[in-house]
Amino acid sequence: MLSSNLASWLRPFGVQVLDMLLPPNCLACDAPVDADGQFCLPCFRKANFISAPLCPPCGVPLPFSPGAGRLCEVCAVEPPAFTQARAALRYDDLSRRLILPFKYADRTDAALGLAVLMARAGAGLLAKAEILVPVPLHKTRLRQRRYNQAALLAAALGRLAKRPAKLDALIRSRATVPLGPLSRVQRRAELEGAVAVRAGRAAGLVAKRILLIDDVMTSGSTANACALALLAAGAAQVNVLTAARVPDPRLE
Ligand SMILES: [Zn+2]
Ligand SMILES: [Zn+2]
């Protein structure tokens, strides 16, 4: 363990103590790379960065250019409460290798690397964001995992983009079942009233442009529930930035 005395002794020499002790590794394997948030060349070739064409509000990759006013099938039926969602990577084998250990296996050191990728994909959203807010975890799950991976990403992005992160602005007021197997209508019912603005935090959100942060966006239902709670508290606009996005299997 590095003593804080050594760290403070080295600081005047411009030595990045942590970099010196933990040379950056590829986000997806153990190969050394130049800086955090990079892939080694073989992993970079496999990485599926999300790029246009996208559905304008939900950011799902589309096989065609949507054209003015055209939306994906989901948004066309029911536009989301958030204005725009963007993500760095498609959720596939490679991004799962980054995100699952980060989420479930204490690999909290991946937060900075993922945040670097997210800052690139969400540069436009970060530029207009006034406050970053993570998607909350229910306290039972927080106790099991000991950290909220979305809050780690929001804190890292806040530091990178010099934006304030309000890590406890939202709460999960009750636990929900896994949303994966549910239909859109069932998901909405399951999330009804499950996310709320924490008592005493609403005043800081009024008239602000909020950027909601999460690790993975699947159907967008959770992000939508968070956006509804933030807008009901008086937020001016809610956008969403995630590390990865599950593509729509019908469009692949
Ligand atoms: Zn690699
Ligand atoms: Zn859409």
Q: In brief, what are we looking at here?
A:
The protein is α/β, with parallel strands linked by helices and 252 residues long. 37% of the residues lie in helices and 13% in strands. One zinc ion binds at residues 26, 28-29, 31, 39-40, 42-43.
Q: How many H/I helical runs?
A: 11
| CATH fold node name of the largest domain | Rossmann fold
Quick one: how many beta strands?
A: 6
Low-confidence stretches: 12-19
For the sheet with most strands, the description reads:
4 strands, parallel
Broad CATH class of the largest domain: Alpha Beta
Please provide a written account of the structure.
The chain has two domains: 46 residues, no CATH class; 203 residues, Rossmann fold. The chain has 252 residues and is an alpha/beta fold. It is 37% helix and 13% strand. β5, α11 and β6 form a beta-alpha-beta unit. The protein has a four-stranded parallel beta sheet. A two-stranded antiparallel ribbon has the order 3-4. The structure holds zinc ion (ZN) (2 copies). One zinc ion binds next to α4.
Topology (elements, then pairings):
Elements: H1 4-10, H2 17-21, H3 41-46, H4 73-77, E1 85-90, H5 93-104, H6 110-121, H7 123-128, E2 131-134, H8 139-145, H9 149-161, E3 170-172, H10 184-191, E4 195-197, E5 209-217, H11 221-232, E6 237-245
Parallel strand pairs: 1-6, 2-5, 5-6
Antiparallel strand pairs: 3-4
Helix pairs in contact: 6-9
Characteristic terms for this protein:
252 residues, alpha/beta, Rossmann fold, 2 domains, four-stranded parallel beta sheet, 11 helices, 37% helix, 13% strand, globular, binds zinc ion
